[in-house]
Amino acid sequence: MVDNMHFQYNGFLYGIMIHSLVDAKQGKFLRSGILFAVLLNFKHIYLYIAPSYFVFLLRAYCFENSGNSMRGFSVIAVFTASLGPFAAMNQLPQLASRLFPFKRGLCHSYWAANFWALYSFVDRVMIVLLSKTPLGQYLDLSLDTSALAATTRGLVGDTVFGVLPTITAKHTLILTGLLQIPGLIFVFRKATFERFIGSVTLCAFASFLAGWHVHEKAILLCTITMSVGIANMVGTSPNSGAGSGAGSGAGAGAETLSLSEQNGGALTSKDVRSFMIVSLVGYIGLWPLFFTREETPIKVLITVIWFIVVGSGLDQCIPRPFKGSSLSTEAGPSLTSRSMLRYFTTLECLYVFGCMPVQIYVNLIHEAVFGQDTLAFLPLMITSVYAAVGVVYGWLLYSAAYFSSGKAIDNKKTR
To answer: Whole-model pTM?
Structure first.
């Protein structure tokens, strides 16, 4: 949808990223690093996942091989070819000012579904409460009147908060770094591909959730890296008939163990739940980019078909124990009970199905009741906040699965 219905063409860039990740899985670390350097020079958003690449290649390639100079030369050559002409014309400062828009404000004109959407929403609620009720007097809170229309006018600029503290670019940088560190330590301790792809995903999540002026389309970096991780677990699962030896280790002589093995030899429901929730609400969060009536049935149909097809396919990859057995050895559920939603909790099901009434209001009811000009930002805010709840929850679920799987296998080794 983003490539063919919106104005940005990111498909070939994600193709390069996936190629680089596949090379890393196959142990072709030099080519993986070169491809990522090329990717980074195509679009700087991939700085989000650069820390994970740096730590993984340092641990798996530089520490295990003597050809460090070749990798360094290759990366320098890519950056020289890309940035050399700008440096020769003294345009690097101009380039940097355009690539890193620190003056554009914390939130994009349409809030991305991240921490700051929730933060801005809480601030708006508090503004209403303080302006309509005597709550501010009881809590000794002041209201910045300049913020009354600052975060809901749909314009690019500095974000002003009425009640909550102002967030600066330095704050977002520190928070992003803190959120990325655990995954980087995890992959540095044991540089397997499974830990690497998980670390890449967590770096993408950290940058999307806590970054400065994040665009809504950046959620694709999270969902696509999650997809690669899910595909890897399905491919290395004993149920798929494929072995996990090729490329699952990330360095010569390094002790390796795939995530599928850590999870008992198969994809788990927690993996699927986090992936499906983040992907679903992430894609719904992109719907406002396609705002014409003609595009509405297309974006809805594409998303629904994706959810059904991908969910049904992954459902067959989750082992189910035989009757009377505690072992998860059966490749999938029976035909009579094949429903991926049975793995979801009640609250998760309510949230997923809650997307329907929310979008009915956003796409149909709001304009019919208020028109196009009254409370114009409200549908966007509802979509962003609702999607942000799912993205944050999915990130927490994914993080729990990622770190607990590693701890479980480490505990087994020490016994």
So the answer is: 0.84
